[in-house]
Amino acid sequence: MYQLIDGKKISAEIKEEVKAKVAEYKKQGVEITLAVIQVGNDPASSVYVGNKKKACEFVGIRSLSYELPEETTQEELLDLVKELNERADVNGILVQLPLPKQIDEETVLNTISPLKDVDGFHPMNVGALCIGKAGFVSCTPAGIIELLKRSDVDIAGKECVVIGRSNIVGKPMALLLLRENGTVTVTHSRTIDLKEVTSRADILVVAIGKPKMITAEYVKKGAVVIDVGIHRDANNKLCGDVDFDNVAEKCNAITPVPGGVGPMTIAMLMKNCVESVALQNI
Fold this sequence. Notes:
Distance between the termini: 47 Å
Helix content: 40-55%
Number of helices: 10
Shape: globular
CATH architecture of the largest domain: 3-Layer(aba) Sandwich
Largest sheet: 6 strands, parallel
Mean pLDDT: 96
Strand content: 15-25%
């Protein structure tokens, strides 16, 4: 029988821990503030931004919301980011992606101060992760490490395989597993004999962006499987990159979709906001 890794429960634990830390800071006269910028009114982005605001309210973090029109120019957005970089009362800056086509995402993300980059996307924070220095870590991979640790999954010495090499999940995920002393392989669309590689994994992290692609033949018996994907299937039901019904019985532990990795991203964003205070005062 497999263990279901409950992201809702674990994310709730983390939010409670963050809430306690925020309350401690408030006693010291420190108010933590997150500035969230959304350009345009993409429906999915609006849902994410709303969830971030609710999480801020729950843990006691002040949230500043900047809702800019779709036709906002890159220069206007960069001016706002630079202004927030300079503000002593703002600890974290988050620009909701995707951005409209007239704005270059990389330029915007690189303009956010690395000390306020609570999403962990700035090259300086990615570089800090590579060499083991203090910095913000991308929220989804950081959340996956918490899922594993809090589910008593030992990473040290284990064969870990990551499917996907994106800058947001795949690459930082591999670095974090390496930091936890895992033996890490990164696979991708050009990997030869993917099934042979993934079926060696004690811990398999799937972030490939294809619904239900990973079936039992990709998975080693007794593996721990983490599914980062989120899609809608032919019946409009939420599903992941892993064919859960096909794979679950072969696993020692597995995350569901929804309710696995998803809830962890915002919980880790809140954790990064709290950690911003110490980073900004080093």
